[in-house]
Amino acid sequence: MYAIIESGSKQYRVSEGDIIRVDLMPHPVGTQVEIDKVLLLAHDAGVKVGRPLVEGAKVIARVEALEKGEKLLVWKYRPKQRYRRRQGHRQVFSRLRIEKIVP
CA angle at residue 56 from 16 to 27, to 5 degrees? Predict the structure, then answer.
């Protein structure tokens, strides 16, 4: 059984026991989260495709950790102007463990 969910305007294919990394969620570590935006649900009985969401389906996950991504460097440069700027950025993510898929 697997589901396709939407979180932070991105789509993820998840099944029970998976660990995914999504954009930062406003929940502390250890909290249980219900994700209602289920776009597709596939199990033994068949496939349910939502229009746009599958009614009554939800995914229960637990926030395991907050982690930072890799450092990205942003450069600004103007030729012949002696203007150069370098800035670093590290995005914060939430790591979720998928506990249950409720059809």
Answer: 60
